[in-house]
């Protein structure tokens, strides 16, 4: 294989993904491991990275590595201070350099973004948003990144003016695994009719989940509500609540959904039913595009 | 010790509490173990009970045992079918007899209550509510039982006409233990000012927690928000949301808070600040009073 010009790294809590990229921005190879930031002590990051990218490195040559995500958190490899919004999502400035023992790599971390009022933070999503905007440079509107901690960002003239995190995915996960509801849920294929009914009902009445949550358990005891229906209703309630509260972002505005998992299709379909003007891109595509900005900018700097 | 006339048992998910009671309803002795319903297979209930109450039993004499709580759930010792509301919370009818191997005990389980629209269930709280009404027979109004699954019941002429479960305590617990918020919370003494501020703000704007939940984490990262303050704000948000949605129960009406833990004081104080007319009793007192009805009624039947 041709040796890469630079290496892009998407380093989240659960996974580590690396891309070997040539001078034209073409991906020569991609490798993934489960050495997520959440499983590592600071001293373990460099070995975890080298284990993955060693085949791409040459003795006597320094390969630049650009990493985004939770790797730059306080509990990560090395803290990359947040950049405050409003700002462009990915900047040529402010890359945080990490010292490594191995001379074959030069590692720089893309900083996350912060907002002071109301307080909010993101790490990794800014790279996807920046990457999306590199592909769609004229885009103005809202960007939605569904996930464990969903993010909504408002884009004006290439900058993020404001953003908002919702704990939707994590709420679904901990309710499914750790609450009394675990007895009445399942993770088989989604009951789509139950999902959209719950989602649209909740968008119209966003407080309903507060009183209806335990009703999922009661309905399974009293009415033999099927686990796939209960799971779909729970998911619909939580996503519906997010969409109701995020309405100022998407209502009457162009909205891009950056899809990291199948759940993003449900966001996009629900938003379309609500009349939103939806554009969908995949998260890996957006991340790589964002890392390219950092790599290009860093070379230019 | 005098041998008891009957034995009352409060058998929840985590604990087993037994009371030895004489003919006058006086408690001669009380014992507790951690053999909660959640830890036992059906065949293990009788041994767990006997281990606790053996000193109170006499050979050749059958002692009645009245048990309430999750012991009567489908996953418990023996399923005691729900009684539908509206109804009196504790009835002389409908006790579910459980066959035992030991001839020294005769075990009867108090059934829980169900509601069909919206679907809801309770097990154990009906005994406390019935016990409270035995102490306050003229009471009309709302009864609040704060807890893992808080219950609100509407009382009219000695009957429960409707009730509503909120997963407030469990949400606090799983968010504290299993979500990203665990990094910014603690369980030291409560920051009362932060609690009441969050609770009253949320009662006025009950959707705020949906957007402010992740803000607790962001505030700890960006503003060094102290863990005791963040915990108090989370607790205040969740309890405030419950009180906002339970407003039809308590607003302008007599409200009794049955207190199983210190958190009940915070419910009572918040409700008092909102102008509710509050009466507080302790859960053990209410449970014992409810078990006495079952014991008395059962004897009369």
Task: Describe this protein with a few key phrases.
homodimer; 301 residues; Nucleotidyltransferase, domain 5; six-stranded mixed sheet; globular; disordered C terminus
Q: Would you write up a description of this structure?
A:
The structure is a homodimer of 301-residue chains. Chain A is of the alpha/beta class and 301 residues long. Chain A folds into two domains: 1-113, 2-keto-3-deoxy-galactonokinase, substrate binding domain (Nucleotidyltransferase, domain 5, 2-Layer Sandwich), CATH 3.30.420; 124-286, 2-keto-3-deoxy-galactonokinase, C-terminal domain (Nucleotidyltransferase, domain 5, 2-Layer Sandwich). The first copy, chain A, has helices spanning 45-53, 125-135, 168-178, 192-204, 208-223, 227-245, 247-250, 263-273, 283-300, and strands at 6-11, 16-21, 27-33, 63-68, 83-84, 96-98, 105-109, 113-115, 120-122, 141-145, 150-156, 159-166, 254-259, 277-282. In chain A, strands 3-2-1-4-7-6 form a six-stranded mixed beta sheet, with helices on both faces. The longest helix of chain A is centred in the C-terminal third of the chain and has 19 residues, at 227-245. The radius of gyration of chain A is 21 Å and the shape is globular. The two termini of chain A are 29 Å apart.
